[in-house]
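Let us work through a complete example step by step.
Step 1: write down the sequence.
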Amino acid sequence: MPWISRTRLAALRAQIERLTEQRDEARMDAAAHLGAAKRTAARNVHLADQAETATVGRLSAALTAETRRADQLQRRLDNALGLDRPDVAAGAGWQARRTDKPKPGPGVKP
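Step 2: predict the structure and record it as tokens.
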């Protein structure tokens, strides 16, 4: 092993010290950036969940309103066509009780 002068040895030790400090600072910066990235990701997930919940609530309310509206329109149509009369409801099963209903042939399921 060759001999190293004291000044050269001091310069190398100073360089090692500087590089060690740079390494430690880089590690601290990396840890800080990783922590910030994790917090940002968690916040984004939380905000996305809130937005999704709000959207589901809004769509559910819209569906309920449209269902009510469709039911009301159906009732109005039934009334206009006379389908809400009691004699119409009483004859709902007339097809099954028809006397002129053709009998199924052999091999045909009723």
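Step 3: interpret the result. The mean pLDDT is 88.
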